Amino acid sequence: MQPQNVHSVLAVGENFDYALFRVAIAFAENGVQVWFISPKAFDKAPKELKTPDKEILQLITFMYLKDHNDLVTQLNGIHLWRKIPSVIILSGYEHYCDFSSVNYKPLQAALITTSLLDSVGVCAAKKGEKIVLVVSCVKLVEANLPRLQVLKDLYFKDSVYKADDDKFVENIIEMLK
């Protein structure tokens, strides 16, 4: 269920912050407007990473949205934004969808995912270009994998497993060219 001109990728693994930040910078270095959405704020750029120029960082909009309500509200207002992104990176998919909860709500997870795809579809229509959605999720315990698998099968064009930061960043950039 992909909107036209949308490329969605589900990334599964551990410790995504550094790698996703590098992906955001790589797109911004090519002049692309990026939204980086996370449930928690970055304290600072990773030590291993050379701080990008101010012009590059200005192309990245960081949003710290504490829960699924904040996320869906923000996504539903994307058409009102002046700077429409060409790339949306969502860190912490498991946080917003709450896959590990005994009270897991599959319809809520589907709403979150379709809101992401609808928002990216709006961006694609407004900009008249391909828009990229990268969603990261920590590796789930075996019992909760079917919850993620259903969403992956229904809504994501591609998926990738993150083991090594450098290879992950290269794979994401190459996949989305």
TrEMBL record:
GO molecular function, one term: single-stranded DNA binding
Taxonomy, superkingdom: Eukaryota
An annotated GO BP: double-strand break repair via homologous recombination
GO CC terms in record: Shu complex
UniProt name for this protein: Uncharacterized protein
Naturally occurring in which organism (per UniProt): Zophobas morio
